[in-house]
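Extended Data, panel c. Modelled sequence:
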Amino acid sequence: MVQKTTEAQVRPKGFSLIEVLIGVFLIAVAVLGLVQLYLMGIMNTTRSSEIANAVFLAQQEVDYLRTLTNSELSTFPDVTRGESSDEMIDVNVDGTPDYRRVVVLTNLSPTYDLEVLVFPATEAQATASDLIANPQANRVRARIDTVISR
C-alpha cells in the first residue's frame, strides 16, 4: 500500500520570513509609540519644574518687597542693599544663570503697583523694556501683579 503525501505534510511548520517581518514591524510601532509618550512626559515634567521654580522666584521677590518700609520702597532698587530690578538668577549654583527676574515697582502714593516677571535665562540678551512690553513673546515663566500699600 502506497501512502500519498500532501503538501502540508512535507512543509516544515513555523513562521515564514514575511510573517516575522510583519510581527517585528508591529512591535516596533508599539514601542515607538511608548517611547514618544515617555519623552512627552519628560518634557512636561521639565516644563512644570521650570514654571514652579519661576513662580517661587517671583513670590520670593514679592515677599521681600513687602518687608521694606515706605522709604525703602521709594528708593528701590538700592544697590547698597544689594537690590536689582533686573537680575540673572542661578538657582542650582552651577555658575550658569537659570532665570532672569525683572521687577517693575511704580509709586502711586500711598500704594505701590508691583509687577514681577520671571523669564528663562535664554532671554538674557533682550532689553528689560522689551521683556516688560511683550512678556508672552519672550516666554515668560511667571508673572505676579500685586499692590503694596503703606
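The chain has one domain: 15-149. This feature is highlighted in the accompanying rendering.
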